[in-house]
Structure formats: C-alpha cells, structure tokens
Amino acid sequence: MKYIVQFLFGSLLLTNIILASGGIGGGGIANIPQGQDREKYHLGKAIFNQELSLEKQTNINANDQDERLEYLQGSLPNTEKRRVNLPDLSGKLTEEQLQALEYFVQIRFNIKLPEKKKDKE
After folding, report:
1. pLDDT tens per residue, range 70-80
2. Is the pTM of this model over 0.85?
3. This protein's superkingdom (predicted)?
4. Distances from the Cα of 1 to the Cαs of 7, 14, 120, in angstroms?
5. What residue spans define the domains of the chain?
6. Helix pair angle (62-75, 95-109), 10° resolution
7. 87 versus 116: which is more confidently predicted?
8. Cα 21 to chain center, whole Å?
C-alpha cells in the first residue's frame, strides 16, 4: 500500500512539472487577413522580404515615397531596422506596392500608421 501511494504521489508531481514547463504557447503575430486583404498582405510581405525584383518607376513622386518609407523604417522594431532598409526602395514602388508594404508592416508589427489626409481644394 505504501508503494502505491508513493507511486501516485510521484506521478502527480511529475505530471505537474511537465504541464508547468510552458509547452503550450500563445500569442504571436496578428492573424493574417482573408480575401483581398490577404493578397495585399502577401504582396507587402514579398516586398518587405525583398523577394520581388523592383525596377525604377518613372511617374511617381520619389520624395513622397521617401518620406513614407522613412516613417515606416522608424516604426519598425530594432531587430528589423537592422535587417531591412526600406528607404532603399524609394522610387521603385508603385502606389499599390507602397500601400501593400504599409499594410503588411501595420499587421505584422502591430503598428498604427497615421491616416492619410485628403488635399483640400
């Protein structure tokens, strides 16, 4: 009888140690969007990870892109700031690609970017 109690106590103790090991994780990055937003997210991800070859664009405002990319670079966590240099993409992105990159950074790094203001006429 003494051995059965010791066995049960040992099993209970071992079970508690195993379950308390932190094996069940949680959190992580935000959920990847669905539908059209999913395509936009993956385009932004491909641009961020430099998986696309980008050519110099002729009919874009490079100064505006440079400003937006500098702001995005400053919003990144320090580990990512060392890994990527977003201002290098200035003049190479279409408006759609730039919006996709901003969207990806917002979702992936949980960053709130300021709303774009409409020009007053």
Report:
1. 999 999 999 99
2. no
3. Bacteria
4. 10, 20, 87
5. 32-109
6. 10
7. 87
8. 28
The CA-atom distances, in angstroms, between 11 and each of 4, 19, 39, 79, 88 are 10, 12, 50, 43, 59
Residue type at 104 in one-letter notation: F
Q: What is the mean pLDDT of the segment spanning 53-61?
A: 86
pLDDT, residue 119, reads 47
- Cβ neighbours around 4 below 10 Å, total: 8
So what's the pLDDT on residue 68?
93
| Cβ neighbours, 10 Å, residue 60 | 16
Instruction: Decide: helix, strand or coil at residue 46.
Output: helix
Q: How many CA atoms lie within 13 A of 23 on its CB side?
A: 7
Q: How many CB atoms lie within 10 A of CB 54?
A: 14
Q: Which residues of 67-88 are buried (b: 16+ CB within 10 A; e: fewer)?
A: ebbeebbebbeeeeeeeeebbe
CB 40 within 8 A of CB 100: yes
Tokens in use for 14? 């071992």
